[in-house]
From TrEMBL:
Gene3D superfamilies: SCP2 sterol-binding domain. This is SCP2 domain-containing protein. It comes from the Bacteria. SUPFAM superfamilies: SCP-like. The lineage of its organism: Bacteria, Pseudomonadati, Pseudomonadota, Betaproteobacteria, Burkholderiales. It comes from Pelomonas candidula.
Length: 119
């Protein structure tokens, strides 16, 4: 079984996202790096203009980074708090342009819902 936020876990989430009816909500976002601060997760995912997600080997220049402990990632994916609440409370640390992130904040809540069955 895939460990939370490792490559195989993300592969499952990407497949689920790409077949979900909400995939267009992250259309054009670009790449983001997701890091488990106290674990083995460090993955880059990119969303294309159609909202389809793919894993990337390396983050592009200026790629936003989301970092949290494994516990906080599980809480976020489980729906205990929203993406905005996670960033504002410091449970999820965000590095990057807030202007890039703001239009997609609610879409990241949808990503958590799609990933929920894999937690």
């Amino acid at each position: 079984m895939a460990a939370l936020f490792d490559g195989p876990w993300w592969e499952r989430v990407v497949v689920a996202w790409n077949s979900s009816p909400v995939k267009a909500r992250l259309a054009g976002f670009g790449a983001a790096r997701f890091v488990v601060a106290d674990g083995q997760g460090d993955v880059v995912v990119e969303w294309g203009i159609d909202g389809m997600a793919t894993r990337c080997e390396a983050p592009p220049s200026g790629c936003p980074v989301f970092t949290a402990t494994a516990v906080h990632w599980v809480q976020f994916v489980s729906g205990d708090f929203t993406a905005a609440a996670g960033v504002l409370s410091g449970k999820i640390h965000f590095q990057g342009s807030i202007r890039t992130l703001l239009p997609y904040t609610l879409a990241f809540n949808e990503l958590a819902k799609v990933a929920r069955p894999f937690v």
